[in-house]
Amino acid sequence: MTNTHQHQLECNALSTITSSGAKLVYLYLWLENEATIDELHAALGLKKLTLYSLLQTLTATDLVERDGPVYVCQEQTAAGGNA
Q1: Which of 11, 55, 57, 71 has a CA-to-CA distance to 49 between 20 and 30 Å?
Q2: Are strands 70-73 and 64-67 parallel, antiparallel or unpaired?
Q3: N-to-C CA span, the chain
Q4: Using CA atoms, how far apart are residues 81 and 83, in angstroms rounded to an integer?
Q5: Domains and CATH numbers, the chain
């Protein structure tokens, strides 16, 4: 996948996220590749309860996946589904 194509896919994913907090979490995960709740809390300064709610929304829309205590961004296709 080219950088331009990947950038377009990430922009498409961001356009589907309406919450500024969820966008912040998504971008952090995209840049860092993965993070735990504790890492997100330390890096972003958001309350853990808020993070759990934001991550639940992001996982429900298949933008983020949970692997045990770690959250990671899903790769998105141009059609908006998982790759």
Answers
A1: 11
A2: antiparallel
A3: 11
A4: 6
A5: 3-73 (1.10.10.10)
Backbone phi, psi, residue 9, to 5°: -65, -40
Backbone angles phi, psi at 66, to 5 degrees: -100, 130
Q: How far apart are CA 71 and CA 41, in angstroms?
A: 13
Maximum pairwise Cα distance, the chain: 37
DSSP letter at 70?
E
Question: Which residue has tokens 């194509």?
Answer: 5
Q: What is the pLDDT of residues 27-49, one digit of tens each?
A: 999 999 999 999 999 999 999 99
Q: What's at 54, amino acid-wise? A: L
Q: Specify the pLDDT at position 16.
A: 87
- The closest of 3, 14, 21 to 73, measured between CA atoms, is 14
pTM equals 0.78
| Residue 61 identity (one-letter amino acid) | T
Half-sphere exposure for 53 (CA within 13 Å, toward CB): 8
